[in-house]
Write a structure and sequence with these properties.
single chain; alpha/beta; Arc Repressor Mutant, subunit A; 2 domains; transcription; OmpR/PhoB-type_DNA-bd; transcription regulation; transcription cis-regulatory region binding; DNA-binding
Amino acid sequence: MARIIVVDDSEDICRLLKRALEKDGHSVTALPDTQELDEKLCKAADLILLDVMMPGEDGVAACGRIRAFTDCPILFLTARGEDEDVLNGLGAGGDDYLTKPFSVLQLRARVEAHLRRERRVPSYRFVSGGLRFDLQAKKVYAGEQELSLTRSEYMLCETLARHPGLVYTREQLLEEVFGFDSDSGEAAVTEHIKNLRGKLASCGSAPIETVWGMGYRWNSEKA
């Protein structure tokens, strides 16, 4: 059982999602307003479903705010035509998104995939160049400095670093990291890579190389 928060100003959508996810045995808290996302509630959550277009504080702003005290997966619920808002949301710490209208089966599969990914607990570490990966804690260190990565950024970083020199296409990274066909698509991978490169650069590291017309690869000598 996972503890899931659903935030949507539509009472009907909240009721639908709550009913569907509770059938899978999850504990679901449905909220009509992002302002109710306080620190105590978010710290106890295993996953958050967050509508983008909300009155007052929108989903993207809320994501940026609550990332200060939760690292659980955050999935946006978005209408078509809001791609720019969603990319901003990925930059604010979101992991993925579902495009409305979506089927209940699609929702349940997407939620389960993210929760399954969270339950993977490797029990070892490895080093690539000057970066140290703690696979159990899902953290990356440059010396003693921990990089502040979202879960999606971490998974991309680990995937590339495990196979230095191997070129990954955006499609392969999407499948490797998320393990399913994501509405986010290859644009989300590009956005996560951009954010990840910025955080690596802050500690003097630039191991992710673009292979034009193909994708990305990890150069350990630049880590």
